[in-house]
């Protein structure tokens, strides 16, 4: 989206323990533009893995291993300095900001010509003219598209997705799957997707790992 070259996401010998017992063990690399799907039964540690990568691991857990984004070891960085963007099932738009305000929020603070970036992003997802709307007045699919654009405008180096389509109805899910994964591929972003839905996995065209096996 902004001409940046994106790194790969390396997960080096990661082990996450709960009460001293290994819950998640993972070693591998997610290439730029690749989405790695993480599946597994309830309680197998999928959300915990994403929380660890994002920098929000709850204190009940302990972890070892390294998280490396390109040439940056981000393992010990706080969440806000990791360069990792999140897309969850709830679009979590700020209710006190307009649609355009939500998108501007994603942009790096000193970026010039923010208005043009926001206008292009809205046009990109068929929402031209929606900038001044209150997010509460948008449909579920429109909110999801704004959340995707806010994520991409924030120029992350990697993306984590946790059941991102599960709140949408079937038809919208197909549309959002296509939109999200085509944008992640085009932006060259490595990503991890947690889902129970095989159709999500098929849309990524990528590898799948199973936790708790
Ligand atoms: N904050 C926490 N403190 C202690 N234990 C937790 C905490 N959060 C989750 N757990 C436990 O860690 C294990 C993994 O939970 P996690 O939410 O990662 O599973 P999951 O694979 O994402 O499950 P689901 O598919 O149901 O969302 C579970 O046994 C859960 O009870």
UniProtKB/TrEMBL annotation:
PROSITE patterns: ABC_TRANSPORTER_2 (PS50893). PANTHER family: SPERMIDINE/PUTRESCINE IMPORT ATP-BINDING PROTEIN POTA, SPERMIDINE_PUTRESCINE IMPORT ATP-BINDING PROTEIN POTA. Keywords: ATP-binding, Nucleotide-binding, Transport. SMART domains: AAA. It comes from Billgrantia pellis. Residues 9-211 form the ABC transporter domain. This is ATP-binding cassette domain-containing protein. The keyword Transport applies. It holds the Pfam family ABC_tran. One of its GO terms (molecular function) is ATP binding.
């Amino acid at each position: 989206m902004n001409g940046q070259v994106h790194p790969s996401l390396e997960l080096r010998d990661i082990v996450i323990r709960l009460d001293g017992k290994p819950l998640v063990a993972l070693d591998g690399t997610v290439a730029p533009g690749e989405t790695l799907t993480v599946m597994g039964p309830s309680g197998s540690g999928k959300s915990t893995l994403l929380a660890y990568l994002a920098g929000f691991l709850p204190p009940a857990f302990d972890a070892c291993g390294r998280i490396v984004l390109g040439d940056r070891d981000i393992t010990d960085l706080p969440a806000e300095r990791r360069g990792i963007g999140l897309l969850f099932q709830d679009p979590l738009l700020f209710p006190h900001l307009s649609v355009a305000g939500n998108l501007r929020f994603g942009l790096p603070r000193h970026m010039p010509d923010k208005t043009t970036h926001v206008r292009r992003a809205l046009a990109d997802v068929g929402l031209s003219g929606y900038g001044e709307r209150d997010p509460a007045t948008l449909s579920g699919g429109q909110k999801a598209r704004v959340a995707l654009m806010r994520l991409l405008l924030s120029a992350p180096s990697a993306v984590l997705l946790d059941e991102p389509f599960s709140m949408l109805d079937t038809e919208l899910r197909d549309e959002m799957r296509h939109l999200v994964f085509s944008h992640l591929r085009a932006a060259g972003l490595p990503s991890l997707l947690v889902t129970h839905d095989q159709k999500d996995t098929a849309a990524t065209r990528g590898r799948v790992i199973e936790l708790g096996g």
